Here is the input.
Amino acid sequence: MTRDYGGLRDPNAEYTMRKLSAEAMGVTAKRGGGRDVEITDIQTTMVDGNFPWTLVRVYTDAGIVGTGEAYWGAGVPELIDRMTPFLVGENPLDIDRLYEHLVQKTSGEGSVEGVTVTAIAGIEVALHDLAGRILELPAYQLLGGKYRDEVRVYCDCHTAAEADPEACADEAERVVEELGYDALKFDLDVPSGHEIDRANRHLRPGEVRHKADIVERVTERVRNRADVAFDCHWSFGANSAERLAGAIEEHDVWWLEDPVPPENIDVQERVTRSTLTPIAAGENRYRVTELRRLVEDGAVDIVAPDMPKMGGMRETVKVANVADQHYVPVAMHNVASPVGTVAGAHVAAAIPNALALEYHSYELDWWADLVSEPVIEDGRITVPEDPGLGVTLDLDTVAEHMVEGETLFDPE
Ligand code: MG
Here is the structure.
């Protein structure tokens, strides 16, 4: 797909850093055994889910198509359009080289972090699906094989009465008993009625008591039936985070997520070291270079990368491997469609230290319709054994829910 940039010159057209195209490296893209394949096009279509899911397809001259998903974000489809010429003619099996090639070619767009990484990740996920289909192997096999046949999924829960501790406990009970999950997460950055000024990040005593009350009611209600995590969305200062984490220690939560803003790792470390409550963070950091510091500095008890946001499947495996050297488990943040979620499950299968993978769409009744195969059943994803990601995009569902103005993928 080619978008009109209104005559804007491609700033990367003459940009040369470390050239990692096959041509520049003097390597041949030709291979035997049915592996002489070239990328012919890359397309995106945004679907209006509970987030604007950005689906990516990589087309080849072999007629085999790979499907992936980038984390949502303004400009991601445009960035993928601009990356397409850098990959046309390349062999899609050289996933790592092509990934670094894109990082080099898009340095002007900021390929170290942010949406450019996210755009590259969407292509990288599609390349894993494509490579698996070419080689007739499930994607987890390309990542080194699997530690587990099924991946535990935790359900991000909401209730209209989010500030009512009893309503949260009722919803926890419903999700466990009716939807079959044994792992949950609730928001803890909800109004308590005691706030005077939320901008100063300081929790008043009544706010701490209210949050501790939510934690107590929810954990007591589903104790022995579910693990429960709580998310603070970067809301509090260090002292408030420490007081909150200390106040809920007796309830032994699964983890407390993002109690402080994401930028200052020193503060993150201070909070984590102050409490027995497990502290998780990581969804706002990119690539292994950023996430490794959280782990190496002891700033988290649990690291929480978002696979299609932080850089893709192999990049998440690299983070997990660093974390494993520090005996730190991985709880994968996830707000993706079934495509990105299944890709996350392949990663979670292939790393030793996977705790669980998030599911953030239980209020969207057509989430599972986006692919033909069942995905989450009884709070688990059975890791697919079919080639690639092992799921088939349902183009009718894509067409039905496309973001206005989007174009449906070309047929395979
Ligand atoms: Mg979070």
Observations:
- The chain has two domains: 11-137, 150-386.
- The chain is about 35% helix and 15% strand.
- The longest helix spans residues 115-135.
